[in-house]
Amino acid sequence: MPDLWANTRVIGLIQRFDNAYLVCRAANDPAAPWTFPTGETMPGESCETAMRRCGESLLGMRLEIDVGQPPIAAVLEGRPVTLRYFFCGVLGERPPQPPRVEHRWVRKDELLTLPVDPLHADVIRWLAQQPL
Question: What CATH number has the domain spanning 8-129?
């Protein structure tokens, strides 16, 4: 039986109590664009489990998944993938050692001014239009 979520990237729209969103980039590359925390599913892993695993391993954050968005078909690096965005909250955190990514919290209006990964451009425009 084929793996339903093979070639799937999970993307966290991690929101803080003050409506700020978490963005990140490689810790050793200050010229890299900002992105939402992203990871790939492993064979047999659900998207929700992958999102929680990525939050823990990438950011050191225990995530609560509030709601998942429907799958979006995309082509990345010349191959078809499925994107799954999840609205998440943070239940707890401890800095990963060594830090793999630099991260910061930004308001929705700041998202429009940051150099971000083009993959998220439509989602950022959509977020910016949503009421607080």
Answer: 3.90.79.10
